[in-house]
Amino acid sequence: MRRSNLRMRTALSLLEVILALAILATAATLLSQLMQLGLRSAAVARDEPRAVLWCESRLEELSAGILAPISVADIPLPEDDAWVYSIDVRPGAYVGLLEAIANVKRKGQLLDTASVTMTRWIIDPSDSRFQTTASTTMDGGTAAQSSNSNTGSGTDATDGDAQ
């Protein structure tokens, strides 16, 4: 009897092997999920600055009058046709202003992509109160400049009198 109690184990049991394989499979699954999440996050981090730049660019073009202030949906970007932009133009809260909402996103992808939405208030080009001629602008600029000059020289004269 003594001999059987002292006998050494030379192999693993089936239960130990199955448990070790289950732990290994769980660890591999978790690591692959983390890698996938990391790759997705890296793609969004790479694409988001592009989307911000293109969204700002579309809004600047709209403000400058290069793009017409009309609503459009899913127009391919000229810089990269894998991206699309949408612009929603609505009447603003104040008369003569329009609310422009621009969205830039990757074409055809629904989840986990960089999508940027920005809002800008722009002057309504169809509102006649904001349309000026070149001579009115020039006169206004001259008047403002001479007004600043007079204010500046008045301040200097006052400073000179105080001394």
Helix content: 40-55%
**What number is the mean pLDDT?**
78
What is the strand arrangement across the widest sheet? 1-2-3-4
- Please tell me how large the radius of gyration is: 34 Å
Strand percentage lies at: 15-25%
The major β-sheet equals: 4 strands, antiparallel
What is the count of structural domains? 1
Distance between the termini: 119 Å
Give, in order, the helices and strands.
HHEEEEH
The number of helices is 3
Shape: rod-shaped
Offer a quick outline of the entry.
With 163 residues, the chain is α+β, with helices and mostly antiparallel strands. The protein is built from three helices and four strands.
Descriptive labels:
4-stranded antiparallel beta sheet, disordered C terminus, alpha+beta, 163 residues, rod-shaped
Verbal overview:
The chain has 3 helices and 4 strands; from the N terminus they run ααββββα. It has helices at residues 2-5, 14-64, 134-162; strands spanning 72-76, 83-91, 97-106, 115-123. The chain has one domain. The chain is 52% helix and 20% strand. The N and C termini lie far apart (119 Å). It has 163 residues and is of the alpha+beta class.
How is the secondary structure organized here?
Elements: H1 2-5, H2 14-64, E1 72-76, E2 83-91, E3 97-106, E4 115-123, H3 134-162
Antiparallel strand pairs: 1-2, 2-3, 3-4
